[in-house]
Specification:
alpha+beta, two-stranded antiparallel ribbon, globular, disordered N terminus, DUF4292 domain-containing protein
Length: 201
């Protein structure tokens, strides 16, 4: 029983908040929702030159993101010659694999890509906490059961997915014009997975 209590206490401490570890100052919630504007225009396809590094493999090509309608996006990754590597449909309530190359068809990888692309394209998320640090307003929300912190200055600069007080995945948006992030990096800290995107529009 003593061991169980000690283990529970240790778990509670180790799962302490990311906000305390990174000395974020809590403020009153001013907006009920946080918005990601980067893939919100249904009138255009968002086309990026893409490199996906997963373990010891590199896959290069084009990533096309299309908003079909509110809460509904299509994400397709092809070689530059047009051969499809994966094709996902992402809605507010569903993630569908329309196609995936056999070399990428691993359950763990699909789940990682699911959470990454869901966070990348989801437009509106309910805010549970608001913080400030330096020049950032920081909004905590939950996507697919995982905590995400949105760092906002004049625009959305970063999203950080956390777990057990640590940064698990870092989304970095740079070179932003007209609500388009021309450079995007998605880097996992606990496994060798990185997605680098550069707009070619």
């Amino acid at each position: 029983m003593r061991y169980l209590l000690i283990s529970c206490c240790f778990l509670m401490v180790s799962c302490g908040s990311y906000s305390k570890k990174h000395q974020l100052t809590e403020r009153e919630i001013s907006n009920k929702f946080i918005t990601n504007p980067y893939f919100s225009d249904t009138s255009q396809d968002f086309v990026y030159k893409a490199n996906i590094q997963v373990y010891d493999n590199n896959f290069g090509g084009l990533l096309i993101i299309k908003k079909i309608e509110d809460g509904n996006h299509r994400v397709v990754f092809t070689t530059e010659m047009g051969a499809k590597l994966f094709d996902f449909s992402i809605t507010e309530t569903n993630f569908k694999v329309n196609y995936i190359l056999d070399d990428l068809n691993k359950k763990l990888l699909i789940n990682l890509l699911k959470t990454d692309f869901k966070a990348l394209v989801q437009e509106r998320n309910l805010v549970s906490r608001r913080y400030i640090k330096d020049s950032f307003d920081i909004y905590k929300t939950t996507i697919l059961g995982k905590s995400h912190f949105y760092y906002v200055s004049d625009q959305l600069d970063q999203i950080i997915r956390t777990g057990h007080r640590k940064e698990k995945v870092h989304f970095l948006f740079t070179d932003i014009n007209n609500n388009i992030a021309n450079h995007i990096i998605i880097k996992h800290h606990n496994i060798n997975l990185q997605i680098a995107l550069k707009s070619i529009q």
